[in-house]
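Feature request, filed as a ticket because there's no other form

It would be nice if the structure record came with a short human-readable summary line next to the tokens. Right now we just get the raw output. Example of a typical job, pasted below so the devs can see what we mean:
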Amino acid sequence: MGNTGLECGGCNDAVILQEFGDARADNAAKVAMQKVFPDRTIEQINVDAIAAGGGSIHCATRQEPLA
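Raw output as currently delivered:
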């Protein structure tokens, strides 16, 4: 099953957003998120390897310490 939902994570001055591999859809998602978070950098990453196991950005970052 591929990525079927929007998931993101915030860190410092950025928002990490999943990338689907569709340039048009990826850009639309980035533009929309930039409107929601105008003072943050929106970084998109490919999550295919994580998604293959049923997860996404939240699953890979939820155990990160504050420091």
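Something like this underneath would help us a lot:
The chain is about 35% helix and 25% strand.
The two ends are 34 Å apart (CA to CA).
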